[in-house]
Hints:
The structure holds two protein chains of two kinds.
Chain A (H helix, E strand, L loop, with lengths): L1 H27 L14 H10 L6 H13 L14 H36 L4 H15 L2 H15 L13 H31 L2 H9 L3 H13 L1 H25 L4 H10 L3 H29 L1 H4 L2
Helix pairs in contact in A: 1-12, 4-5, 4-7, 4-10, 5-7, 6-7, 6-10, 7-9, 7-10, 8-9, 10-11, 10-12, 11-12
Chain B lengths: L4 H14 L9 H11 L1 H19 L37 H37 L1 H16 L2 H12 L3 H11 L2 H14 L3 H8 L4 H9 L4 H25 L10 H10 L6 H28 L5
Amino acid sequence: MLSYAFRRLLSTIPVLWIAVTACFFVLRLAPGGPFDGERSLPPAILQNLAAHYNLDKPLIQQYLFYVGDLLRGDLGPSFSSEDFNVAQQIMIGLPYTFTLGMTAFLLAIVVGVAVGCLGALYQNKMPDYMLGAMILVGVVFPNFLIAPILQLVFGIQLAWLPVGGWGDGSLKFLVLPVIVMALPHAGRISRITRGSMIEVMNQNFIRTAKAKGIGPRLTVMRHALKPAMMPVVSYLGPAASYLLTGSLVVETIFGLPGIGRYFINAALNRDYGMVLGTVIFYMILIVFLNLLVDIVYAWLDPKVRNR
Amino acid sequence: MILNPAKRELLAAELLEAEGLSPEGRSLTKDAMRRLCRNKAAVVSMVVLTLLILAAFLGPYFIPHNYEDPDWAAFRSPPSWEDGHYFGTDPNGRDLLARVLYGTRVSLAVAFVATLVSVVIGVLYGAISGYFGGRLDSIMMRFVDIMYALPYILFVILLMVIFGRNVYLLFAAIGALEWLTMARIVRGQTLSLKHREFVEAARASGQKPLKIITKHIIPNLVGPVVIFAALTVPEIIATESFLSYLGFGVQEPLTSLGTLISEGTNAMENMPWLLIFPATFLVALLLSLLFIGDGLRDAFDPKDR
């Protein structure tokens, strides 16, 4: 088990290296430099700026500088904000994005698994149809459509919940953004759970458990749930990266001060440093989340470990 | 019992008819098509999709306004029959119906081009990886795994930031990043196809690997590829409108459904029609494509239901 985790950890190194290298060189292919503003700067100042940011060195040397800084946790300067560098800006936004993302993640898993199990156990009955409807709504209505609808109904018409903002960070500010973020994933997770649950429930060891007469609830909880969770666990890796993508929209719509909104603003203002830094930060996060998912998967399924 | 041949034929035809079968054998495709036509949701969706496509491409010739010229007599006017703004106008006095139709056209075009790009890359990549196998296969598939793990929409945004918001780049970027699942499916199919007799015969007759892939393997992949491409289309449309919503899509005065929804969201309290109409079009488009994709999968692969 430990050796599997270690091998898996080692295999993330080339992944991260490729990703960082690709991002760096794509950025350097960009037409125009970061200092092309409305007014053209005098050449002397441009030269000083370039020297300050190491832009006058050969490309390969810049790359080595960048990777070296990265290893020390420095994601480089932001070209639009003078007071904070990229890493500092990310650290400011991180708690908000993390709270939002984790809450949505947990909600999606709990609701998705519960609804999926109900759908499988009451196949082609009422809960199953509700499941179908939920999946459809989650998939067909993009989050940027659900969010304003919920804002309009619960924020403005009924005035139950705040329309946006973080406020004091209490629960009522979180409800709408978390629902919007969790809904599509709850739908997908429930579909996966339903499928694998139906498959597991038809297997021999479940028949044996039923024949022993331990009752449907114990059969599901003690015997069916763990094997049925395997495909769900393998979906959680991609789900984490979809969730991050979703946070871009949700933070923008609800006006939350997370990384997603910094990223969108930086991208719209063509702040290369910030965009590159955020993408790399996101990728490191996603790669490690995937690592975690893989290790959980191996813990659940001994067959994977020895591959 | 001895029957004369004519009578025997007749009896056989009667028997087949009683079972609802035609005397000629049915091909797999015909079978699938019959199943597809019995799927009500899929049939309705095909009608809706056809109407949407016709409206998007022919509609602009039948309405009195075009998508970029402001009507100086009607700013922010709600939908009305009198002045010909059936869907109302936006704050710049542009006809919303014309803009929605144009946006639908952009969405459909993105979907078509990006799906094509993803199919071409995915099929070639998957077929080569599966056919050659061995070390090449494991390297190629490892690369796919890596790409899977990365949040690719950030890459698209990065590309859009760096190279400017170019429609063609958007098409290509989405397509170039949606091929991963296609490559996996094609590889799996190729692995099972490459040991079949006709491939071995081709190899024995001395054909080059590339020719075997294009002449013998790829033609046999049409079924799964079509199904999966149909399932990719709504995803691409959703991605495109997502990017447009955030402001990384096509630029003014061109428009797309995502951009229109984003504009509509900002004005939804005073001018709800700006949100309702583009949203309806997007949802109708996604819903019909989804049902068609699901219908195709069920029709070609009944055991998956």
